Amino acid sequence: QEADHNAMVAKERRDMEVKRAKRAISQDAARRAAERDQKKAREEETARKAAEARKHQAMGVRRLKETLGKHEEAMAGLNEVRENRFQHDAARIMQLKSSVDDVSRKIQSSNEVRRKRQQKLKAEREARKQQLLNDGQNPYEVWRREEIEADKERQKAKVKALNELRSEKLLEQLMTEDTAYKKKQSAEKQRRAEADRFQKEMGNHAKQKKVAAYIRKMTIGNVDVLDPTGTALRIDPSKVSVQKTHAFGLGRAPAHEIEKVERDLSRSKRMLETRRPPRRVDSLDSLELGPAVSPGQAVADEEDSMFGDGDENELPEGKLWVPKLSKLEQQYLEAAKERQKANITSVQRCWGKEFTGDAFLAKPSVIAFDDFEVGKKYRQVIEVTNVSLTFNQFKLLPLDDRIKDFFEVQFQPPGRMSAGVTRYITLWFCPKVSQDIVTTFPILAKTGRIDFPLKCTTKKTILTVTPQDAEANPVVDFGQILSGESGTCTLSVRNTGALAAGFEIVPEEELNDLLSMIDWKPSTPEFKEHATTKVKFKFTPTAVGNFSTTLRLTIFNGAAGDALFTEEKRILVRGSCIDVPIFVEKDSYDLKTCIYGHIFRETVVVHNRRSVPMKIEVEQPKQIENELQINPTLAYIQGGKEQVIQIKFSPSTAFLDKHPEHRDVSRTDCPTAFRIPVKIVGAEQVLPVFTELVGALTTDTVRFEPNEVDFGRCFVGSSVLSRLTVINESLLPQRYAFTRLPGVLAVSEVPEDVAKEEEAHGVSGEAAVLEGGGDGAFGVLLPKERRQLCFTYTPETATETDVKVMFKVITGHLCVHEFGIRCRGQGVSPLLVLSHSRLEMASVPCDSVSKESVVITNSAKVPYLLNVLLPPSELCCLKASPICCKVEPGQSQRLQLEFRPVQDYLRLLDAPEAPAPAEEEGEAAAPPPAVDGAEGAPESETPPPSPEEVVAERLRSIRQHGGRRWHGADGRTVHASWRLPICMKAQMASGGDKPAKKEVQHFAYLGVSTCMLPTIVTATPAALDFGEVTAQQRQILPLTLQAEAGVEPQNLVIEALPENQCFTVLSAPRTISTKPFQLMVEFHPQLVQIYQTQLQLRTQSTRIQVPLRGRGVRPVLKIEPADGVLRLGSVVYTRECKEFTKKDLVIKNDSPFGLRFSLESVAPANPNHAGPPPFTLSPSTGIVEANGSMTVTITFRPHRPMALCREKILVNVPNQKEPTYVYLYGHCFRYQTYAIAGMEFGPFSRADTQDRGAFVDNLAVGVGSGADPETGVFNYPKAQETSFSLTFEEGERSKFLLVGSSVGQEAAKGAGGNFEFQIQLSEFSKYFVVEAPDIGVKPDKIAKGALKPGELPTKVYFKYNPAESASLKYGDVTLDLLDGIGQWITCKVKGVLSGGVVPQGEAPTQEIWVELRAYLKQI
């Protein structure tokens, strides 16, 4: 028993130990799994952090770049603002300086004017002083009195101006106050109106009106009160108001309902139009107008719209045709769907809360069948929990038809489920094909449909290969392997999928040397599922060098369907083999160019490839004291480290001579090149390490030609130029600068074009103009460069200058060297002072003129003869005036220069065309016979120069004449600079026996710069010549301006013309383009003389000068008749003014130029308020050609009867010595025959014309004293007088009347009429007789005759013949005292005018009574 008990105890202990061991093993396995998971999680977290770090680093770099870009933009903006501010400040300072200069000049000018005025006043007072003294007056008292009077006048004018200013201010203040008062009254009136309106609206009456207006608007018939006497039993609001009912839209709505709907629609449309932004239509393309559709096509489209468009691809599955629903049917269908949906589902509300979201949740949330295999059956239990607010229920919806055969569902409907209740659904998955399934598992709850995600995925192969390059290709890099050693590298492939895949690695390059040095294991296994496979590569190099090859990795898992995986990758295998452990980085170290006497350093880096330290020693070169030093020469290099050897090199000028072994003989182009070999020996290394130091030696000196600059003598204010050649002896570029440069010296570079010309022609120093080369005080000399600089000496005082100019150079970036250049010169007081030493002529285009002037003052004590030496005109197009003159001491002479470029000047440097070879005609001419005694063949003719030689000769000619010419960047602008010599020769006074001194000539130089611009704007014509224009007359000519093609629009600016030249530009300036623009110019001469000036036009790119010429003349005017009296006769009056007469006035021009005239009425005739004036002239203005004439037709067409109508006309021709007038006379009567008082037809004045009363001619008013009471037609007063009184003054014996016959259409049909005058018998009739000598009627008691129509009236004379026998001598007594005693006697004469045209309803004859009255002397 004890044994059994012990056995049982031992067994229990063994079982317990086994259990503990198993438990420990399981715990250890769990711990290891947990460690693996933690490690995996750490790795993933590390990888994620690294990826996030890289991502955020890239984002940080990008943000940094953006920030730096913004900072750069901000700095650029700040720099731009700073530069603009600097430029603005500089411009303000320059403007301030210009303003100060202008003010100074104005002050000086005003002071000069005041000084001259005071001098003039002083001179005048000196002239008056003696006269006042001779008259016994005190000149100072007189002058003081005049000053007081002038001061009083100024005070009066000042007070008057002040009063006017105060009046204007007071008037302005009154107007301002009046405006403010009116505004205040208007505002007060508006306020009162608003207050009244507010009071009216606040009352009950206003509310009632609004309510009544609304009721009338909404009721039928627009009434606000229903008829109380109506018979209707019931009044419904819908029957009496306008409301939209169901009848609208079915064609049964009444008219008032339709009107209401249309009114509401129009109101809504207006509101939309006001709120909707306007649509912008940029072009017709944006309208998207479709193509035109034919009627048949429209019908077909309508049928398609009704029965579908026939596209089978858009039909539902199993449907052959689906009708297209109308809009109403679609609305009904949507409404039915909504009703059905409302019946199926509902909204859950509990305790006032409304539930939203999914009412049931599934666990797991995603139903997943991962890594399934075809033919196997998989089961998944889904836990569905009610998470809504209260009771709910659900049912299963069918799966998709494509996958429902793969699933089986075991589920028993639970009915209503309380909140929180869970039900289970068992889902069996039986895959038939190897394809992934991604769909949903739908259920329908009371609150709506719920879809649970359902995913089924096959087994797959997912591989990750490390390491990789940037393009995700596997890389096997062995690095550097020492010869005799081997290296290994591992390629890891991790398969995270559930399907294994086989692979194969084969080389792509069969002949690569690296294939024999590497091997790998395994070669053809597989990548296990959920495992990592490591492929080990081993590199055993057999040769020194760099090797690389490519291996092809083929992967294939052999699965079907979506699990199929096939991929091919390229594995890059590379490695290198090195032979020695000690090496240097470079085979040679280039010290570039070294300068004598300066220190240059270089570092040689020695590397140790081994892992153990190694000893090295520098055997070559040996150290050279003070020139070549090496530190250290012995050192130890740690394993895998490096050692730096410092080399200090400071060569002397004799370095290569002392050590010829270091001269580099391979570089024959550089005699100072050196090559110093360096040998480094390592312990336990047989082969030494070689490297070398290479470079070139040079100096830092600069040479000058000449060594010093001597300017000689120079006038103060003038300049002298001298050239200095600077030669760089170094192989390095040298930056130079002139320091301690005095103010009288300036350094500039020789212009590039001058240097090229001189180099091409092999000359030096010919060019006289060296401006424009740029500042030469700073610059860079290239290696071995020869540069020419210009020294300009401009003395300020007449003293000697002897200075040493310092020339500093920086060779490369190493050192500074300083040189001294001695400059000498002597300043001399000028003989002649030029106001400007240089003239900048304005830039002008072809055929324009630019003028500038300089004033030359003789500051010497003797007169000088000046002569300006100009280059040939074809070279410079310059003219000077005067070209030669004499200037007295202290005298000034103005020298004017004119620049007028032409087309030949532009084409001066164009190569001439080679002459065409002459055509041979017939046989060649025989050579001329040789001259007797000539030896050999005749000499050949000199060939003509080539075009290049011609251009070179012209440039040489320009240089020899002191000029320089070059073209602008565009090739169309021609620039030129000239130095014009002015020769000065003193004019010494000759006299006595003194020998004549040798004449010494001095020269001064004037710089002139010209520029010819391309023709951008053309003016047609080039010059406006108005010819001869009558003084005080106007003539206008057009000037056409047009811009060249391809030129930007030009803004025209017109400079003011001189007022005394009588030219005016009428058109306003505007922008000129390729379209021609006419500028109207007027010439209005005031005097008889020649006028000419220049019209200055300028734009932003060019300027134009158009010469204006004209001549004011005085033409000689003559007229016919010479006295200017024109009698147009008499006209029979008609109410329609049909009758008229005409006369011709001839205007003659006896001058050789045109005459412009105008006929102006000075004393007009009786006006016609309802028609044309009585006298009309055609033409009234015109131009008479030189030595020609023009006929003016004068028509007399009276509008009323007038015994006498006359008008005075001025023939207006400006600038005549005496005015010329024309005097017009005419008559108009109702009867054809007429008689008027005798008069002489001659000149008259305006005062002689008799103005009638204001109511004489009131036909325009419509009423008058002569109006017919029955017809209301106005009748003018009769013009024919019926009685005349002729008085014979003392000594007067004859008086006359004018009797004539008028013209007219009716008068032309018959005779002109008759007249008869008979003296009536009386006591004194014996003293009077009547006669008409013009028609042959002799003196008698009766005179009669016939009148011809249209001729001048006949004079009927009445003569007084007193008795001559009356004597005052009675006997021997003479009664002289009784002389003059007598009496006035009268006699009646009856006249009868008959015949001719008689007015309707009037007597056929006219009786005229003439009273003759005379003084009869008798006792």
Describe the fold and architecture.
This protein is α+β, with helices and mostly antiparallel strands. The strands form 19 sheets. Strands 39, 40, 42, 44, 46, 47 and 48 form a seven-stranded mixed sheet that branches. It is flat. Residues 279-313, 918-926, 928-940, 991-997 and 1254-1265 have low confidence and may be disordered.
Mean pLDDT: 82
Count of strand segments: 79
Helix residue percentage = 10-25%
What spatial form do the alpha-carbon principal axes imply? Answer: flat
* Count of helical stretches: 12
Low-confidence stretches: 279-313, 918-926, 928-940, 991-997, 1254-1265
Structural class: alpha+beta
- Write down the oligomeric state: single chain
Radius of gyration: 64 Å
Characterize the largest beta sheet: strand count, sense, and whether it forms a barrel: 7 strands, mixed
Cα distance spanning the termini: 229 Å
The fraction of residues in strands falls at: 35-45%
